[in-house]
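Take a record.
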Amino acid sequence: MKNYFKKIENKLKERINLEELIIVDNTHLHLKHKSFVPGKLHLHLKIKSQYLGSISQISAQRLVMKVLDKDLKTSIHALEISINK
């Protein structure tokens, strides 16, 4: 799992200027939900970025989701994004 999180971190840092990224795996909180899919993750990205903080929230979230597009189709079921300057 740590390797996969490092892969996500590298993808984001290659494409977006980030000062800090914390990846929180909340998958365990969703195990009993009807829409739970085994093997798919529920992640919360806590991002500190002057750049993302300078653009609209929707634009910033779209940019993050664009970078993680393939992961969202294959490995990530739910993604929460928190952005701070």
Residues 2-84 form a domain with the GMP Synthetase; Chain A, domain 3 fold (CATH 3.30.300.90). The beta strands are 20-25, 41-48, 76-84.
